[in-house]
Design brief:
By secondary structure, the protein is mainly alpha-helical. The chain is built from 2 helices and no strands. It starts with a helix and ends with a helix.
C-alpha cells in the first residue's frame, strides 16, 4: 500500500475520532448536518488527492 494512501486513511480516522464526541454529546441536528457535509467534503478531497498523478 503506498505511503500516500496510508496517510490518507490515518487522516480520515483522526478526523472522525475528533468529531465523534461533538456529535455524541451535543446531539443537535444542525450541527450533525454541518459535520456530515464537512466529512463528505474531506472524503471527496482525499479521493481526488489519491486519484491525482502528482506526488
Amino acid at each position: 500500500m503506498p505511503l500516500k494512501t496510508v496517510y490518507a486513511v490515518v487522516a480520515v480516522v483522526l478526523m472522525l475520532l475528533y468529531l465523534s464526541p461533538v456529535l455524541y454529546r451535543l446531539k443537535e441536528l444542525d450541527l450533525a448536518i454541518v459535520v456530515i457535509v464537512g466529512v463528505g467534503m474531506m472524503l471527496l478531497d482525499v479521493w481526488q488527492s489519491l486519484k491525482s498523478k502528482e506526488e
